[in-house]
Design brief:
0% of the residues lie in helices and 50% in strands. The chain has no helices and five strands. The chain has strands spanning 8-13, 22-26, 35-42, 45-59, 62-69. The chain has one domain. It is mainly β.
Length: 84
């Protein structure tokens, strides 16, 4: 597959609440996103987490983009003590 035929990429989340997760995402305007917001449940509470692209590489014919967690712009990760 050539670069011009790509329609998606694989996002690799390096740290934060989504550490170790991979997700297939659509290219936007033929390019991977530079910043993504992800909603995830931590201790049963949904939160918004922001990740910034730090680099990209190709594995076989697949484009992969590595993302680093941005804790300053993300919802705080706190457990709900009332439900513990």
């Amino acid at each position: 597959m050539t670069d011009t035929a790509r329609t998606e990429y694989v996002a690799e989340f390096l740290d934060g609440p989504l550490e170790g997760d991979f997700e297939r995402r659509a290219l936007v305007g033929g390019k991977p996103e530079r910043r993504v917001g992800m909603v995830a449940a931590v201790d049963g509470l949904e939160s918004l987490f922001w990740y910034d692209a730090i680099d990209e590489h190709t594995v076989g014919s697949e484009l992969r983009v590595r993302f680093r967690f941005d804790p300053a712009d993300s919802d705080p990760v706190e457990s709900d003590e009332e439900s513990d």
